[in-house]
Design brief:
The protein is of the alpha/beta class. Helix content is 28%, strand content 27%.
Length: 314
Amino acid sequence: MSVLVLADHDGGRLKDATLSTVTAAALLGEVHVAVIGDGADARSAAEAAARVAGVARVRLAQDPALADLLAEAVAPLLVRLMADHEALLCPATSAGKNVAPRVAALLDVMQVSDVLSIEGPDTFTRPIYAGNAIATVRSADAKKVLTVRGTAFAKAAADGGNAAIEEVADEATEALSSLLSRETSASERPELTSAKVVVSGGRALGSAEQFHALIDPLADTLHAAVGASRAAVDAGYAPNDYQVGQTGKIVAPDIYVAVGISGAIQHLAGMKDAKTIIAINKDEDAPIFQVADLGLVGDLFTLVPDLTRKLQQG
């Protein structure tokens, strides 16, 4: 089986979720990576993809219309590439989840979303009921379209491969959409979805000022990424890209620190695969303690500064 992986890249750098998707694709067959974009960034991403262990071929498509990776422009190209492939795997990132449904619709097949494991060439597992149950899904479609949860698969080695890069000509398509602007947040902290340590805050922090005054120092001390519950994001305490949960980002760090988060099922769906979960909450009956490995019951406005200070002191 020949498997096509959509590369999610930024500024010429492959995102970690792409490496995890390559690992998943290798369980199905020969891995080809589609790098789509324009200019030097796309070329750099293609060269990075060619070095990934396990990649047999890189298909590089460059065109100004593809520069913003808009689904309306990318999907028809991927449909044409699928003539030579039996499966398309996309990272379950914003880019992958934007493109995959449109490709599946154009191919008239059923998409399998958020794949957790590859059980066979046509059999996969995926979470349902906010992760409280795992469904085993068998697809009878001749062409498979999957989105892959990056935290469920190990990352392929970024070096060790020597794949050939093949230029793909893009056929002109009608511009159905255009990107007006992109707002990105720059941070020296690790990326949330790939960080080994995550410190998340909830609505109990009370305000944006207190959120950053308590969470940021603890995260910086632990060299951690910062996350937030949906309630905290909806209240304006943190930006949308901090949100962890069923409708946010899925994380599986070595350590997850939940501060003032009650543990609603939607939030647990995004972080319960963390190796060690530490919860700080004044409500000893909060659902978060049911999944926590370590729990601190008390006033977070006292406990968090004390914990930060003791960690800084070594």
